[in-house]
Amino acid sequence: EYTATITLSEASTDFAVGDLTLVNATATLTGSGTTYTVTLTPVADGTVSVTVPAGAFTDGAGNPNTASNTASAI
C-alpha cells in the first residue's frame, strides 16, 4: 500500500474517492475540509498513480477545482 496527502487550497464538502483518477490501484480516501489522505492498493505489479482531474469537485462557493499533479509509486 502507498499513501499520499492531498491538500486543497480551499475546503470542499463534495470531494470523494470517486473524484480520483487511478492507474493500477484501488483507493480509499479519508479526511475533510482541506486535508485528505488517499491510500492506494496496487492491483498488479508495476507503477500505481493517482490524479485529481480538473472539475472533479467544488469548493464552498461552488468553484471547480483545478487539476492536480500526478503522484506515482513503483
Question: Mind explaining what this structure looks like?
Answer:
- With about 70 residues, the protein is mainly beta.
- It has one domain.
- The chain has no helices and five strands.
- The chain has a three-stranded antiparallel beta sheet with strand order 2-4-5, with no helix packed on it. A two-stranded antiparallel ribbon has the order 1-3.
- The protein is elongated, with a radius of gyration of 12 Å.
**Total discrete domains:** 1
Helix percent band: under 10%
Q: Major beta sheet, specifics?
A: 3 strands, antiparallel
Q: Could you give the distance between the termini?
A: 11 Å
Q: How do the SSEs run, as a string of H and E?
A: EEEEE
| Gross geometry | elongated
**C-alpha-based Rg, rounded:** 12 Å
Task: Let me know the average pLDDT.
Answer: 96
Structural class: mainly beta
Number of strands: 5
β content, as a range? over 45%
Separate helix tally: 0
Spatial sequence of strands, sheet with the most strands: 2-4-5
Low-confidence stretches: none
Short summary of the structure?
The protein has 74 residues and is mostly beta strands.
SSE diagram, text form:
Blueprint: E1 2-12, E2 21-23, E3 25-42, E4 48-51, E5 71-73
Antiparallel strand pairs: 1-3, 2-4, 4-5
Keywords:
74 residues, mainly beta, 3-stranded antiparallel β-sheet, two-stranded antiparallel sheet, 0% helix, elongated
